[in-house]
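FIELD: query
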Amino acid sequence: MRCILAASLAVATLAGRVLAHPAVSYGADDEGPVRRRKTLGFGPVHPHAVFRQVPQQPLPGFAPAPLRDPVEVAKHFVGGLLRDQLRAESGFVVRKDSYTDKATGVTHVYIRQVVNGIEVADGDINVNVKDGQVFSYGDSFYRGPAPSFYSSAVVPHPHADYCTELEYELESQQDRFEQWLGAAGQGEQVQLVRRRFNEALHEPLKRIHSMNCAFVNLPYDLAHKSTAAALEDPRHALLQFMVAATPEEGVVQDILAKYDEYLEGMKSTFEAHLVGDMQTMVEVIDNVPDAVSPVKAKLAYVQVPHGDKTTLDLVWKFEVEMKDNWYEAAVSAKAPHRIVSVVDWASDSPLAPVPKEPTERKLATYNVFAWGINDPSVGNRSIQKETYDVIASPFGWHGLPYANDPTEDDFKRASKAVKNTTTTWGNNVFAHEDWEGRNAWMYNYRPDAGESLNFDFPYEPKLTNTTDALEEAQKYINATVTQLFYTSNMVHDLYYRYGFDEVSGNFQQHNFGRGGEENDAVIANAQDGSGYNNANFMTPPDGQNGRCRMYLWNTAMPYRDGDLEAGIVIHELSHGLSTRLTGGPANSGCLGWGESGGMGEGWGDFLATTIRSNKNYSDYAMGAWAANRPNGIRNYVYSLNETINPSTYKTLDKPGYWGVHAIGEVWAEILWVVSQRLIAKHGYVDSLFPPAPLDNGTIPSGDFYRPQEYTAAGEKKPLVPKHGNSLMVQLVLNGMKLQQCRPSFFDARDAIIQADQVLTGGENYCELWKGFSSRGLGPDARVEGRTPWGGGIRTDDYAVPKACLED
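FIELD: result
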């Protein structure tokens, strides 16, 4: 109730926003009502339920751990856990749905409690076993005294309390809203506010109440229909449940008018079912009104808490299949036949996980420097389509649920619908100007392409004097923000396909139910007014928005815009990648200084350079266009030629290499050299983007992946990129996941080599070692006296492991 109360107390503020903005458009969902199926769902909450980890103990020496039966281990554990806690009438059975997860080797053993020879339907212990040991378990077993056989305790039931609270909230919510609305009258805007209040807050609450509480008093009204024999006859309890469950008012009225006739018409047969090794009788009831198949019924206990105590209530447990529902319901076996708990096995899924296209909208187009054109010096702008990846961005680049849009009020945020925007605002990136250089961003200016979604804006800056240079740059903010939005989404989709997904901490407002923390899309500031000649990225832990700030560069006239140099944008977004993959997405403190902080810079340079490269090898500078310097903003351009770029691991000892950027360029150069080794062996693919999935959801190999391989057990192995440049990107990202927090160059090197062992079985072991060793990072490279900021005395090693020595 607290959540509902909080939502309703916000009515005044939210409605005020609507009144202040009369031109609000609510989209196609205003055109007519959406059909909602009726569904029931409630039950008691068990405060005594726990989940606990188990300290690992040395195994007995009588048998190797892998040979111990995990089910027997679980049974032994539960027996010890419950030895002094259960009564003589209680016991347990192992459920037949226990299984071993082949991917992890964990066996999940499910235990069901039995009292008086009857299941406790919500008395469960799940035991997780690996290598012969229990490492965690969940426990909701009933610990109190067993009731007398077949008795049904008369205890308070929370269902009526739920409904009373709902009724109170509905009344008080409406009263508060009307009191706030006060003397506003009946104008058009007031009616709009009233409509939004009803749609977003009041109507959903009314639906919950009407679906679940319309017949809360029915058990008491019909109690006289049942006798003591109802403990042996489930039909009374079932028929009363069907009155509450059916969405058809005609069926309700017919049952109530012909109750005895319907009761006599329901016929039963009996089946023996096994629960573990315990046999129980199940009654199969046919001719049940509004059920599409016979209903299964059996006696069970359900735990009902009241106050600081929990008691067992004897219930009839039903499985009821209907047209739009499939219920598992527990109804008191003794009159009054109250619904104790009900679960609808049919779950609504208003958000499709991977739709083919964004929800009912056209694709956007952008006049931008296309992916692969690093900056204005190497190509021209062109019209590019919204080539979003359907796996990485299921709603496209302009779609996100209203519930995850921070600018929407609670009227809209209560909706589960997808909002399709016409600005540079989507699930992955919020791109906009930030001329004032402040933290405020939600309502900053961003281009709006309207219904056409054609983001085609001019970019023709003219030579001006210093006084007018800033104003001239700001004239083209639409083109600038569009470019930043386009590049950022391309980076999101690319990194996603190589493993930077929801559970590993990527940046998205909505995570499509795939895990990880959401509401953390990248806040991308174009022409940030807090400085010049720079760019930065702030990476908080998963679940908080990353912030990318791009600056103007006053290194030339007219000013150059960092937003238009893709390499700088990619570098900054790669900070979010490496920070969240190293040490886990909830730990943002792993790449702060020294070699680890330097590698945070180096990965960005390497990935930006790899993305802009092509089949015909070239050397590349970093930030050359924005800085108006042919050799860029690093000490050297990235090159295989040691005369052009002589960097080795020992270079970090030189003056000027204590800063993270200088350390980073050494790491990036080493990775660049290593990647060329893989390209020489495996060739080059023109596009780093993996192929789109087929209609059945599988990823085709095409010319991107090697043919799918299988284990000896017939399980699919991970897909392996076929070409050297794509393989190197995959190994670099996989290595980030494997390495520890605050890694050294050695740690990151070893993680990449281990990543190849996991992915390919180590077939590139020697190519990788030869690449690292050629720049001094061989197996015997070392450092003495390393300091947090990069100091120390390093020794290069150009050797390779013995396994890689050529005859």
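FIELD: remark
Residues 1-35, 59-67, 345-359 have pLDDT under 50 and may be disordered.
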